[in-house]
Amino acid sequence: MLDVLSAVWFAACLFAGMLFSFALGRKIRSRLGEPSDTGIGAINAAIFGLFGLLVAFTFSGAASRYDTHRQLTGEEASNIGTAYLRLDLLAPEAQPAARELTRRYADSRIEVYRALPDLEAARRRLAASNRLQTELWRMLVQATELPGGHRDAGKLLLPAVGAMFDIATKRTTVFLIHPPKEIMYLLFGLGLICAFLIGKELRAKGPSGLIHAFGYALITAAIVFYIVDLEYPWRGWIRADAYDQMLVDVRSSMNDGR
């Protein structure tokens, strides 16, 4: 279902790899001596610039998808609440069964995201939620044709139910969309190359140079950690499951006795 990266392991390996690359660059520098000024500085600046752009774009993409996930959660909660209220348009005898099935659907949507980060369990509950969609739609299509309901029940209720199903599909799509893992590997590789170039070109000797290299590797690894963590907000430190409380609140507002 998903090719998931571990933010902790990815950042830790990058940090260790950058320190190793820095040490390797220092060792090569000590053997080759002072480099001559042949335009290498401009090349290095270009490589660092490309690395900075890649970090910026991946961070921006991850943050954008995180915000989209939060917005869609609110929209789904709103759509479920609207569809539930419009069940009043049905004939009185059709409302209890429709309300019960809508509540079951809301419960199934909550269970999908509560199952994370267990992807297998989430997949099973998503399949159950999709089956409830089919069952609920068929029931409501038939219920809108019963006498005793509002004359525009089909025009008002069915679009609201369709919107409720559409937003669920959008949430699943956003959940599945992530940058290709090759992009992250490119980010990793460029980080190692930049660390190597720093070690090879850094003129500071002794503890000063080591402190700067350590700080650069630590900051870079921290930024990459948050990029990966934002990409998978259901398993790391940055969590989006708190926003699922909106769904829980909407479900609580569905009075079981009604």
Through-space gap between termini: 39 Å
Q: Tell me the structural class.
A: mainly alpha
pLDDT < 50 stretches: none
Summarize model confidence as the mean pLDDT. Answer: 85
The helix content is: over 70%
Number of helices: 8
Radius of gyration based on Cα positions? 27 Å
Order of helices and strands: HHHHHHHH
Write down the overall geometry: rod-shaped
**Main beta-sheet strand count, sense and barrel state:** none
Description:
The protein is an all-alpha fold. It is 76% helix and 0% strand. α2 (40-85) runs antiparallel to α5, α2 packs antiparallel against α6 (181-201) and α2 (40-85) packs parallel to α7 (207-231). The mean pLDDT is 85.
Quick recap:
Helices cover about 75% and strands about 0% of the residues. With about 260 residues, it is mainly alpha-helical.
Topology:
Blueprint: H1 7-32, H2 40-85, H3 95-114, H4 119-143, H5 153-176, H6 181-201, H7 207-231, H8 245-253
Helix pairs in contact: 1-6, 1-7, 2-5, 2-6, 2-7, 2-8, 3-4, 4-5, 6-7
Characteristics of this structure?
258 residues, 8 helices, mainly alpha
